[in-house]
Amino acid sequence: MNDKIDYKKAGVDISAGEKAVELIKPLAKSTFSRNVVTDIGSFGALFKLDLTKWKQPILVSSTDSVGSKVQVANLAQKWDTVGQDIVNHCVNDILTQGAYPLFFLDYIGIGKVVPEHVEDIVKGIALACRENDCSLIGGELAEMPSLYQKDDFDLVGTIVGCVDEKNAISGKTISDGDVLLGFSSTGLHTNGYSLARKIMFDILNLKPDSYINELGKPVAEALLAVHRSYYPILKPFIDEHIIKGLAHITGGGIPGNLKRIIPKGMSAIVTKNSWEVPALFRFLQQGEQVEEAEMYRTFNMGIGMIAVVNEENVNQILKKTDAKVIGTIIKGKQKVVLQ
User: Fold this and answer.
1) Which of helix, strand or coil describes residue 43?
2) Among the listed residues 159, 104, 103, 114, the one whose alpha carbon sits nearest the alpha carbon of residue 141
3) Which residues contact 289 (CB under 8 A, 6 or more apart)?
4) How far apart are CA 136 and CA 87, in angstroms?
């Protein structure tokens, strides 16, 4: 065998990876706070915790992925929104415990590195980091043609935040008479896409640019709506210590996530007609083709975050946010009841 072989012929283009890194360096730097000690490119990222701000700091971390929403991004040839999705999802996860974001790291596993596409993804990540007071301090770009098809990629994020021990939200104080406040979602967020894609693309034979009259927009625009961050609107109420519990409505829907914060002996009674289910979810249900119970178990149904508060604090939050009263807490054995 006379032909020489190298890494590029094996499927990994080091030069493309290096170009991608150079493109995303300024994007990451645009998110840096004064607490970031190292530059992008170090083997590890250093972050200095401000101990004047936190008296009894507890670090809170979370890792998640955008899931198969990336396949919609590929079909639509639009990659920046999924970058925002992964940051906002992770921010919401640690927010449920009262933690504020400190820094974020991303992982992109990909079949073939196209530097400009990677740049678009990281543009979205950097934008969301800036909006959430979070520093993008590092990550990993891994080209693996043997694991991913040429255009496939996976997007994963890890976030680290902080909360003072006395301010941590655990749900332990949730009690009889407390009120459930629901905050609207912007769409599917980052869950339920395997079912949504099957309905849209396989059953209905729609294309990313197919216009849906019921939604007033094309398929891709509806499915790629950015996962909402609840950090900006909830931070003031967390600072005032008036939120007793927070549930981020992700995979498993309202019943699967709300039950995670309800103490033993309490039941969260959710009134389904207390908010209008957005048109996208009604469209996906296709009449009765998807059973209602399956819809509520798979999708957020228009509620992306649920807060549990004392009745006396309800009006304060309703006046300053888009929250709706969607239920109450009573004594009971079943943690979540949809009625």
Assistant:
1) coil
2) 114
3) 199
4) 10
> pLDDT at position 3, please?
73
pLDDT tens, 120-144?
999 999 999 999 999 999 999 999 9
- pTM recorded for the entire structure: 0.95
Q: d(Cα 36, Cα 103) in Å, to the nearest integer?
A: 9
- CB 50: neighbour CB atoms within 10 A? 13
Cβ atoms of 275 and 303 within 8 Å: the answer is: yes
CATH top-level class of 179-338: alpha beta
Q: Which of 103, 85, 104, 133 is CA-nearest to residue 229? A: 85
Per-residue pLDDT tens for 190-211? 999 999 999 999 999 999 999 9
Please enumerate in sequence order all residues whose Cβ is within 8 A of that of 329, keeping only pairs 6 or more positions apart, or say none: 174, 175, 176, 177, 178, 179, 180, 262, 266, 267, 268, 269, 308
pLDDT > 70: what percent of the chain?
99
Cα–Cα distance measured from residue 59 to residue 94, given in angstroms and rounded to the nearest whole number: 10
The token duo for 162 is: 């902080």
Q: What is the pLDDT of residues 72-91, one digit of tens each?
A: 999 999 999 999 999 999 99
The amino acid sitting at 199 is: I
User: Quick count: other Cβ atoms within 10 Å of Cβ 63?
Assistant: 12
Distance CA 273, CA 301 (A): 11
What residue segments make up the domains of the chain, in order of their start?
Answer: 14-167, 179-338
Residue the block writes with tokens 């590092």? 138
For the domain with range 14-167, which CATH number is right: 3.30.450.20, 3.40.50.960, 3.30.1450.10, 3.30.1330.10?
A: 3.30.1330.10
Sign of the torsion formed by the C-alpha atoms of 184, 187, 189 and 195: positive
Q: Are strands 266-270 and 336-338 parallel, antiparallel or unpaired?
A: parallel
Strands (E) across 171-281 are located at 179-184, 211-212, 217-218, 245-248, 266-270
